[in-house]
From TrEMBL:
Keywords from the UniProt entry: Flavoprotein, Membrane, Oxidoreductase, Transmembrane, Transmembrane helix
Protein name according to UniProt: FAD dependent oxidoreductase
InterPro entries: DadA_oxidoreductase, FAD-dep_OxRdtase, FAD/NAD-bd_sf
Annotated FAD dependent oxidoreductase domain residues: 21-366
Organism in which the protein naturally occurs: Thermoproteus uzoniensis (strain 768-20)
Names of required cofactors: FAD
Family affiliation: Belongs to the DadA oxidoreductase family.
GO-annotated molecular function: oxidoreductase activity
Transmembrane segments: 18-37
Gene Ontology cellular-component annotations: cytoplasm
Record-linked SUPFAM superfamilies: Nucleotide-binding domain
Length: 382
């Protein structure tokens, strides 16, 4: 055998792998980003420090494509409403990030422009189509089109707020459990537990590495322990943990419970008075609740959620429970942005599942260099 004297390629020992794209975060946004990158034939590694979708699967699974009101935490009057929830024991502030709070005060009452609303409308329409397409292939995540009954303090006031929503929600006023309610007509309902499992199957072929990323940029991702992954581009879809990479997101914590219940609600209920969503599926009822500013992964207020749900389901035997963190920017709008070779895709707050397909698609396009910019970057905070 003859050994030629080719050029020497030095691969440092701490390079674990050579990978074209790395996605940091295996929540619903990261899963969709990995899914679209893989569909483009890219070599993808997904880093997830916990279990896949451990935080995302807490969600109720109500996809509100024509209603952004729920996310507008910076509209005038919201701060008083939130403090009212805290006073009534419906929310808790266990820790506050001062830098986030300063940005919140700066963005308070600020309206996003028409360009942002059109962009969000397109994102919502794309996401809706993608969920329907996935369900048409195989509806193994119990997707259904069905109205949501919203129990609110003041139906007229809520109806007024919905009329002002730039996404133009369709709704009517109806009745549930003897009380007037807003009937929101445009949602899709999915089981997030089953959808997370479906997405995990859809990304087969993607390398999933159970590690925490501690540094991103300059063509590499450093993992806890010092190993390094090389990447042409990195997508940071780390939910509220993206804070460590410079995105202003706060952890609005909540719980999601799958339960066998004494009563089975005939409707999907968003009870804003009790602070719970109750969503029936074929084998369990999903119960979600709380909107606490709290980065701790404990289940301190879970009993309060079950207590509030009792009005709709009676006694609930918990099958499993997850703690979820809604990644909320100071204005409740997401962030989709490329800085150098790093793409940031987070900040979906209460509507992460609703927008996740579009978040993942656009993040993939930014990473692939097919798109340079979006109207929803962090530049709005500076
Ligand atoms: C109780 C509750 C109910 C909800 N209901 C709905 C609903 O009905 N409809 C809806 O549309 N949305 C809902 N949401 C919101 C939705 O769940 C979130 O917006 C969504 O989960 C955010 O997804 P994400 O992928 O951005 O972040 P996450 O779900 O937080 O996922 C981020 C992932 O990244 C991982 N990660 C972070 N940093 C690193 C790192 N450095 N290295 C490796 N891994 C890392 C984390 O472990 C995590 O798994 C709800 C949320 C909660 C809590």
């Amino acid at each position: 055998m003859c050994w030629g004297r080719g050029p020497t390629i030095y691969i440092p020992e701490n390079y674990l792998d050579v990978s074209t794209f790395v996605v940091v975060g295996g929540g619903v946004v990261g899963l969709f980003a990995a899914y679209y990158l893989k569909r483009e034939g890219a070599d993808v590694t997904l880093l997830e420090m916990g279990g896949l979708a451990h935080s995302s699967r807490a969600a109720a699974g109500v996809l509100e494509f024509t209603k952004f009101e729920l996310n507008r935490i910076n509209v005038r009057g919201y701060a008083q409403r939130y403090l009212g929830m805290v006073r009534r024991g419906k929310a808790a502030v266990r820790s506050l990030d001062l830098a986030w709070l300063v940005l919140y005060l700066k963005m308070y009452g600020r309206e996003p422009g028409e360009e942002t609303w059109s962009f969000l409308k397109e994102m919502a329409q794309f996401s809706r189509r993608e969920y329907l397409r996935l369900a048409e292939e195989q509806n193994d995540f119990e997707l259904r089109e069905e109205p949501v009954y919203e129990v609110v303090d003041d139906v007229e006031k809520e109806a007024e707020a919905l009329r002002r929503d730039p996404l133009g929600p369709r709704f009517e006023i109806g009745e549930i459990d003897g009380a007037r309610a807003i009937v929101y007509l445009d949602p899709l309902i999915i089981s997030t537990d089953l959808a997370a499992e479906r997405l995990a199957r859809e990304i087969s072929g993607v390398k999933v590495v159970n590690k925490r990323a501690v540094k991103v940029g300059d063509g590499a991702v450093e993992l806890e322990g010092g190993k390094v992954l090389r990447a042409d581009a990195v997508v940071v879809a780390g939910g509220w943990w993206s804070r460590r990479f410079g995105v202003p997101v706060a952890p609005l914590k909540g719980y999601g419970v799958r339960a066998k219940t004494e009563k089975r609600p005939g409707r999907t209920v968003a009870d804003f008075v009790g602070g719970v969503f109750v969503v029936p599926f074929s084998r369990w009822v999903k119960i979600t609740g709380r909107f606490d500013l709290d980065p701790h992964p404990d289940a301190k207020y879970l009993p309060n959620v079950l207590e509030a749900a009792a009005r709709w389901v009676g006694k609930a035997d918990v099958v499993d429970a997850s703690v979820g963190f809604r990644p909320c920017t100071p204005d409740g709008l997401p962030v989709l942005e490329r800085r150098g070779d790093v793409v940031f895709a987070t900040g979906t707050c209460r509507l992460g599942w609703t927008y996740a397909p579009a978040m993942g698609r656009i993040a993939a396009d930014l990473a692939l260099g097919r798109r340079r910019d979006t109207p929803i970057t962090t530049r709005r905070f500076s």
